Amino acid sequence: MARQVITTLIDDLDGQPADRTVEFGIDGVNYTIDLSDANAGKLRAALDEFIKAGHRIGRGGVVRPVNRPVGRSTATSSSGRDENRAIRAWAAENGFEVSDRGRIPQEVSDAYRTAHGR
Fold first, then answer.
1. Given this model, what pLDDT does residue 64 score?
2. How far is CA 106 from CA 38, 96, 110, in A?
3. Looking at the whole model, is its pTM more than 0.90?
4. For residues 109 and 85, is the Cβ–Cβ distance under 8 A?
5. pLDDT tens digits, one per residue of 41-84
6. Calpha distance 21→9 (Å, rounded)
7. If you average pLDDT over every residue of the chain, what do you get?
């Protein structure tokens, strides 16, 4: 049986169609947000002054804050990734449209947790 999954990005700010998923990080936390080209431009413009004054540390690398416990985040993010994989698999089997990457819609996460008694 063939299956075709179509993912539609919705701008997380205004609910209109989005053109891309933008990644950014601050204070050791990375974020993704689905945005239209216009809103992605607004985000980049808002951060431009700070980006120019800052020091690039590479793609994906983020400096760990001094007061953050070492070792705790690895277990947390690893279990979070495992749960996200499980949610995506469950969603696909239960008729929800979820992209392979990026944010999982809250209603899908809630439905998964309800189905699994969490």
1. 52
2. 25, 12, 6
3. no
4. no
5. 999 999 999 989 998 887 655 555 555 454 444 444 567 888 88
6. 8
7. 83
